[in-house]
């Protein structure tokens, strides 16, 4: 299931559904665990660690759920290779004369 994080202070709103609401739903439906993968934070940073690891783990534990989260891509070789390939492709496309 898909959920969003980082709503910010009131009265700001964020995209829905909220990750904490989803965790509560999983627990109410008899789920045993949640797996968090932040698709927008490519590198480890204080906000992402706080939201995706610390707060999410605390919420999951409060809901009686096991918690697992992915590592951030940071400078992994696979990420850098994929990024380089995308840049190379865009460079080739932009050099095409129409």
Walkthrough of the structure:
- The protein has 98 residues and is mostly helical.
- The chain is built from three helices and two strands; from the N terminus they run αβαβα.
- The protein has helices spanning 19-28, 46-62, 77-94; strands spanning 33-36, 66-69.
- The chain has a two-stranded parallel ribbon with strand order 1-2.
- The mean pLDDT is 88.
Write the layout of secondary structure elements.
Layout: H1 19-28, E1 33-36, H2 46-62, E2 66-69, H3 77-94
Parallel strand pairs: 1-2
Main sheet strand line-up: 1-2
Name the beta content range: 5-15%
C-alpha geometry: elongated
Calculate Rg over CA atoms: 18 Å
Q: Note poorly predicted spans.
A: none
- What number is the mean pLDDT? 88
| DSSP helical segment count | 3
The helicity comes to 40-55%
Structural class determined from secondary elements: mainly alpha
Terminal Cα separation, in Å?
Answer: 43 Å
Number of strands: 2
Main beta sheet strand tally, sense and closure = 2 strands, parallel
H/E element string? Answer: HEHEH
